[in-house]
Sequence to fold (132 residues):
Amino acid sequence: MANTPQAKKRARQNEVNRKHNASLRSMARTYIKKVEAKINAGNAEEAKAALQEAQPIMDSMVNKGIFAKNKVARTKSRLNPCKAPIRGTKKTGFRAGFFMSADQLITIIAVTQSPDYPGESFPHRKRTPILR
Fold:
């Protein structure tokens, strides 16, 4: 607990800053989710426009110390529709797990729940089966 007046003031400031930073972080995540939604919908032009709208927001979060520089660079790279194709057509890239067919998902569930699945004996080592 803060004992000196200066420490008490810093505790008050930290609480205000924490709430403000949480608000900014939430706003940036919302912009990122909008870009992801447009990419997942298969709208390349809308995704580019949303990314151009989100990039300055993410850059300002780096300048304010909300996000790390490399995290923002990695996120922008993954969201770029020029580098990563629109996800409706290809099963690679950012959050590729959303693009499994129902048959593939049922296969994974069936394999992982079988008694022969090696992940059961090593719970810390979960393996995803290879789909063919």
